[in-house]
TrEMBL record:
Principal place of residence: nucleus
GO annotations of cellular component type: integrator complex
Gene: LOC110537472
Protein's GO biological process: snRNA 3'-end processing
Protein name: Integrator complex subunit 2
Natural source organism: Oncorhynchus mykiss (Rainbow trout)
Keywords, comma-separated and alphabetical: Nucleus
Localization (cell): Nucleus
Family statement: Belongs to the Integrator subunit 2 family.
UniProt lineage: Eukaryota, Metazoa, Chordata, Craniata, Vertebrata
Amino acid sequence: MSESAGLQFVSPYAFEAMQKVDVVRLAALSDPELRLLLPCLVRMALCAPADQSQSWAQDKKLILRLLSGVEAVNSIVALLSVDFHALEQDARKEQQLRHKAGGSNGESILVSQLQHGLTLEFEHSDPLRRLRLALSELLAIMNKVADSNGEWFLKSSELFESPVYLEEVADVLCILQAGTSVNRQTSHSAEH
């Protein structure tokens, strides 16, 4: 695992093991290295694979063994059970609303009124709400970038800058990306 000022990065060894789905090498990773790969590993182990071979079935068993007993796996599994199609539709509506409102953060389709600060709300939320909170924050930043006309700016984000929730927010972002890209592929193939 590579580290820079407290931030952790996937090592080249772990990346290659993941890329090649080399479960022997994955099993040799340290717990912190494995933690960085959890969202991908959980998805690989739980989602229906394109590969139906006996070899993959054996690899999947090893991956499941690697994941057993890792506390964060349950929260990632819960994130994967969300209806991504509905979430993506709401995100598109949110983008349209932000575009019409000129980027103001007044109304939100994804997030109703926050009872507490964003990070505290994230901590106390169910998986769907966590995905919605992160997505709303991400769309706000993307909107700010689009409105910046190439000028440099600084946009703080209570949620994305909180070291306490860094791993959980990274899990949410990874699952969001994977869930919405799978949903887009499914929608695209259904159109053809």
